[in-house]
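Supplementary notes (optional reading)

For those who missed the lab, this is the record we used. Protein: Aspartate carbamoyltransferase catalytic subunit. Length: 180 residues.
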Amino acid sequence: MTTAQGWEDILDQDEQILWQGRPDGAVVISPLSLLPALFGLFFAGFALFWMIMASKAGGIFWMFGLIHFSVGLGLAFGAVFGKPYKYRHTWYTLTNKRAFIATDLPFRGKRLKSYAIDSTSPLSMEDEGRFAAVQFATETYRTKNRTRTRRVGFDRITDGHHVYRLMRDIRSSDQPGPQS
């Protein structure tokens, strides 16, 4: 069996690529992105007002407001453009045993995560109209005060129904996938 170029050292001997795709990277303004964006603009606007008022007093004290102004703009633009940017630098691959999510982001570098797809994998699909999200794993992470769990999957893909069917077929097969 021939393996796709670049996958020789990653895939198992009997592993085959069934599907590859990328999430849609379009900017979508939703209530979930609009609230933090508005807060960020308000924060930046207040910092700008403060800097103008402080500059009237003379000196360089007004420059202390620059960090707050930058944080406000970061919140505003990150809420709207953060996920689309991440999606434009993400690639998905599904094999007969695992699902892979590859990212190449500034400051984080290239990352490849694999998730076993077997009879114990939680599988769900959210149909979002033109796009779908197929979730197939969970990750637990710690915050300052508690432990949280997030769903992992292929987000904003155009052929979500096809990918969901492929995963159901893998999950229902008798051969459980490797642990990663």
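If you only remember one thing from this example: The CA atoms of residues 86 and 108 lie 11 Å apart.
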